[in-house]
Design a protein that fits this description.
seven-stranded antiparallel sheet, about 150 residues, Elongation Factor Tu (Ef-tu), domain 3, two-stranded antiparallel ribbon
């Protein structure tokens, strides 16, 4: 199984939830300081929250054992939890520190006569937790890919 990314025990792969879009954003915290008779000056206060968004499309009846659906249920149960995020790029696994699963959203379309959706679009949002991980923890998680 080719793993695209891992978050804790959850694996994003072609046989489960394969994301087709990954977005990443980071912004600065900037606060204006008002000055009488002049334009405000800006004070740079550091970095704001970093976020990663994943979008995936599931076709539940094309996956053996509906693995994508069970993984989606696991993700819903994990909202608010923090875990190590590891990118699978390059088959080595690149630890990206801890990330909190902020939200899970899904849209069901193309219904069968019994009401089951043939297509499910999933959106996940992760926020950077800011806690650094030890080199040992990074090596252990990276070993999941090799």
């Amino acid at each position: 199984m080719h793993i695209l990314m891992a978050w804790g025990d959850v694996r994003f792969s072609l046989s489960t939830i394969a994301y087709d879009e990954l977005t990443r954003s980071l912004a600065a915290r900037v606060s204006p300081q008002n000055i009488i008779g002049a334009r405000p000056t800006l004070h740079h206060m550091g970095l704001d929250q970093e976020a990663i968004g994943l979008s995936a499309t599931l076709f539940p009846y094309h996956l053996p054992g509906n693995r994508g659906l069970s993984q989606l249920q696991d993700l819903r149960a994990a909202v608010g939890n923090s875990a190590l995020l590891v990118s699978g790029a390059g088959h080595q696994g690149t630890p990206m520190d801890a990330w909190v699963l902020k939200s899970v959203g899904d849209t069901h379309t193309a219904f069968l006569p019994g009401g089951a959706a043939q297509k499910i679009t999933v959106r996940l949002e992760f926020l950077y937790d800011g806690r650094e991980r030890t080199p040992e923890a990074r090596t252990a998680m990276a070993g999941l890919f090799g």
